[in-house]
Specification:
41% helix
Length: 328
């Protein structure tokens, strides 16, 4: 068994905050990586095994301790709002971090890391977290068994040597049987998210700079005054190059807002690798490649530079695509 620590958010940490990562674990019981995470083809596929323990973190903030219960698999049908990654493993949540634990992950950076040296601070914290969970789990099992007996007999005798946890177990039983189950309201949850947000801290400022640099790189690659010159080399997605206009809109600018069309047809023209040709759709279906591309370039140019929505809307139909272009 190996110990690991990993982060589950994509580039957009603002949207994929701790609360959303917990939702992934609670609702999907999955961990995973995207195609851009180059380590997925080595560590995540080959080195990680069923039974390994993984500490999920957000920087140095611990989120949860999980056990890997499934083999690696790939699923390209993803939900960009939640389980955004296509390289996946099923997990079982062992424990969610609580404030009273009062520790951080000393090694905050890195998407996925194995605890090779168990004597290092990060490794010791994760292994101790796991040991504490196992001890608490066993005590919790004893508590539930004892409560069951109490409900039947109304009295019990706790027996054991000094220091084996009799008093602690009795207190836990009492708290469980007389305590109130308090559920945080939606308003409290939203307030907590806003209260935890620190707009001026170093990490937030660093992410802000990264996003500005990303947008600048896209705008330098496709200046507003050259959009009318978009062509078959730099517009369509599907070539695998990772630098086309449509690739930037769908993938490259993800940290600034998600646009997932569901099908490349929404771009009206894309490169079909299987058939080794450009695939055209809608009003462009029966045009030759160059003429279809010319109409697309004209529509995008007029949308951005002349705010001509009618032409672009009649050609693409996908308002999400147009909004993402205008916001970029």
């Amino acid at each position: 068994m190996n110990y690991w620590h990993m982060q589950l958010h994509p580039s957009d940490r603002y949207y994929f905050n701790t609360a959303r990562v917990k939702r992934i674990l609670e609702e999907k019981s999955l961990i995973g990586l995207g195609d851009e995470d180059k380590i997925w083809d080595t560590d995540f596929i080959n080195r990680m095994k069923v039974g390994d323990i993984v500490a999920i973190k957000n920087g140095g903030e611990p989120i949860a301790l999980v056990e890997v219960v499934g083999d690696y698999y790939r699923d390209d049908v993803v939900n960009p709002e939640l389980d955004w990654f296509n390289h996946r493993r099923q997990v079982k949540v062992l424990d969610f971090y609580k404030k009273e634990y009062n520790f951080v992950i000393p090694q905050p950076r890195g998407t996925l890391s194995i605890c090779d040296n168990l004597n290092k601070d990060t490794s010791r914290i994760i292994t101790n977290w796991h040991k504490e969970f196992l001890n608490g789990y066993q005590l919790n099992q004893s508590m539930h068994e004892t409560i069951f007996l109490l409900k039947q007999k109304y009295q019990i005798i706790l027996q054991g040597a000094p220091g084996t946890g009799k008093t602690r177990l009795a207190r836990m039983i009492a708290d469980k049987m007389i305590g109130e189950n308090k559920t945080q309201s939606i308003e409290d949850t939203i307030n907590a998210i806003f209260n935890d947000y620190q707009p001026l801290d170093t990490q937030t400022e660093s992410l802000r700079v990264e996003q500005v640099n990303l947008l600048t790189k896209f705008q330098k690659s496709f200046p507003k005054n050259s959009l009318a010159s978009l062509n078959l080399n730099n517009y369509p997605i599907g070539t695998g190059e990772g630098n086309s206009f449509c690739w930037w809109i769908e993938r490259g600018l993800q940290p600034l807002g998600y646009y997932f069309p569901g099908s490349s047809r929404s771009y009206q023209l894309y490169y079909d690798k299987a058939q080794d040709k450009f695939s055209k759709h809608g009003k462009l279906k029966h045009l030759d490649d160059e003429e279809a591309m010319s109409q697309i370039a004209t529509a995008i140019d007029k949308l951005v530079n002349e705010k001509n929505f009618e032409l672009a809307n009649s050609l693409f139909g996908s308002k999400g695509f147009l909004i993402k272009i205008l916001s970029s």
